[in-house]
Design a protein that fits this description.
Strand content: 25-35%
Helix content: 25-40%
Strand order of the largest sheet: 1-4
Number of domains: 1
Number of helices: 2
Radius of gyration: 14 Å
């Protein structure tokens, strides 16, 4: 899927005199994981709200389930979601 390109601060990237466009699956995954339900006007029930899982013990299985469900809700096929000491690893893509 393609969308407007964002930089590391979430700002739009401008190339020449137009907005840059790029493959956006990873950005969509990040947006869904960070956002809370109600943040997206077009899909108010979408969002994991990662912040609510911070400093909670034993929430990894619930977080994996929530991420998988929300990515599928957005139209992705989820092959795997893993949480480790090096972060969250997601194998998911939009269906063609």
């Amino acid at each position: 899927m393609t969308d407007f390109q964002l930089d590391e601060n979430g700002d739009l990237v401008i190339s020449g005199s137009d907005f840059a466009v790029t493959e956006s699956t990873l950005q969509h995954q990040s947006d869904i994981i960070l956002s809370a339900k109600g943040w997206w006007k077009h899909s108010p029930s979408l969002g994991v709200n990662l912040q609510s899982y911070v400093n909670e013990n034993g929430t990894a299985p619930g977080l994996v389930r929530a991420i998988s469900q929300e990515l599928e809700r957005d139209g992705m096929t989820v092959d795997s979601v893993a949480i480790g000491t090096d972060g969250i690893k997601i194998e998911a893509k939009y269906q063609e």
